1-phosphofructokinase family hexose kinase
Amino acid sequence: MIVTLTFNPAVDQTIQFDEPMAPDHVMRASDARFDAGGKGINVAQFLTAMAKPCVATGVVGGFTGTFIRDDMRADGVETAFVEVDGTTRLNTTALADGVEYKLNHDGPTIEESDLDAVVERVREQDPDRVLVGGSLPPGLSVADVDTVATAGDWETVVDMEGKALRELDAQYALCKPNREELGEATGDDVSTVEGCARAADSFRSRGFDRVIASLGGDGAVLANGSDLLYAEALDVDVVDTVGAGDALLSGVVAAWEDGEDDATALRNGVAVSSRLVERAGTAVPSFDDIEALRERVTVREL
Ligand SMILES: O=P(O)(O)OC[C@@]1(O)O[C@H](CO)[C@@H](O)[C@@H]1O
């Protein structure tokens, strides 16, 4: 069973405009939606939609926290949140004339007692895998993620920005930087797929059994110590890319839960991610045909 941990959840507001963004001008939206978000929360929603046993934990507070609880309950996602005093953030994606703008808050301050309560929530679930995803709100540090990773007998998967990945100190089953984060974490040249694969492979020595780098339209690479695998992206109509990395990670972890090997897990991740980017925001799509879709993803050794 998987527990996802989101220290900094968000209500994701996605607003669409039919004209380019312009300063000093009231922009009138043509469409808008709100979704429960934050990286671990997205993963929990996608895993639940793929019928994989999973519980989402983390900290929520205020009216946005209530929205997240309600939204996840409506989607049938099991949760074990810790309620905090502050207000969970509201992050905005503005889609205007083919351009994607992403505006993220820093989130409410988390106290040490909140961290202890979260670790306790994780322990209560007795998970095989814990997935920690997203930024750290004020009050928390990278060392707190190491605390989670070492607090029990579980594998920990981590999805954080590059600088944070570099500062982690425990042993992790997997990290999943995007291209920019991989470059930031390693300082390597990530301008080509081969460069990303080399950087992912060398970054394993920093405490990761596997590194998967999500490369947007270029697909994804996976380094596990024996293989360097590359999966091409599927050719789909992209509405926006918010949550694409979370979807990739969900597909990978879901396949591992089924006992699949890394190559199949990577193909599944790319298929799940392709399905998500065809929708606005982090709304949960149907994954009913995901096995058929993954047959279209090619993986090769680099
Ligand atoms: O600010 P963070 O925690 O790095 O990222 C948060 C976030 O941008 O990531 C998700 C998509 O991956 C969204 O649901 C959410 O708004």
The chain has a mean pLDDT of 96. The chain has ten helices and 14 strands. Residues 8, 10, 12, 37-39, 42, 91, 104, 134-135, 242-243, 245-246, 282 surround 1-O-phosphono-beta-D-fructofuranose (CB under 6 Å).
